[in-house]
Amino acid sequence: MSFLKHLACAALLAGSVAGTLADTIQLKDAAAVTGKILAEKADALVVDLGYTVLVIPRNAVTGVAKNSLTDATTPATTPATGQFYAATTKAATARDVSSLVKQIGEAVVQVKTPGGLGSGFFLNEDGYLLTNFHVIEGETEISVEVYAQKNGQLDRETYKQVKIIAINKFQDLALLHIEDKNAPKFKAITLGSSDALNVGDGVFAIGSPLGLERTVTQGILSTKTRQMEGQLYLQTSAQINPGNSGGPLFNLAGEVVGVTNMKITFGEGLGFAIPVELVKAFLDHRDAFAYSTDNPNNPFRYLEPPSRTKAPVPAAK
Hints:
By secondary structure, the protein is mostly beta strands. The chain is built from four helices and 19 strands. The chain has helices at 3-18, 97-104, 133-136, 276-284; strands at residues 23-27, 32-40, 44-48, 53-57, 61-67, 83-87, 108-113, 116-122, 128-131, 143-150, 153-159, 162-168, 173-178, 202-207, 215-228, 231-236, 248-251, 256-263, 271-275.
């Protein structure tokens, strides 16, 4: 029996165990495995099937659909599957940037606050979007400007009922949700893999540098492991400026490989982005980063450690 047939049999057995709580790994020959991804390695995926752990070679995987529990804070995109965002582990065929911008440009938005503006992008059609933490840090009023193609023209719509769902201050990520009652279904973007990128590969960014909305810049991946202040970033020659923060960095298949968040101001072509693998981890564990108005930097309150019991004071005679 071939390896893919073995996997197909495992998928049937795992279906009753994992149910809607699991991830779906699409394989060649129209097969699929349903289970919880425990680790994503360069050459393989490690999947928990409930009764055993399966190691799937990367070259057998054609796509991955991340699934999660439905909860009151972050409901799933599609109730039938529980999928919160779309993701792939292997880049699709490269295309020209012009056609990609027309296809996915509507999913990139402008995030505005009284203190400034940044960029962001939709993760699903229900209005959940990602941006940088520093774009909304300390702000109580947030609006999102969306651009949609209608009758050959680009219409803009501003949504002012925006809720902060989760934040990770240290990795500069924030998950927002548009809660306007008249909000339509939004166009979303697929998350790719920065691990699959090679230095020198073409990338492009869409954002609002200096408030110039829907600006497209193109470049290459300069390095995948630029260390700055204890964090690893993707470095790119694509022009990044204030206002690009929180916007997507795409590969040439139109998949998000990073979230742009800073540049070196005294140089040119020295932009940086948060690797999409960190973004996936943030989204998969978003309940651990849930935002609380009582404690904006951390939703959990830690108790002081107990002090030693003092010796009793003798009663006065």
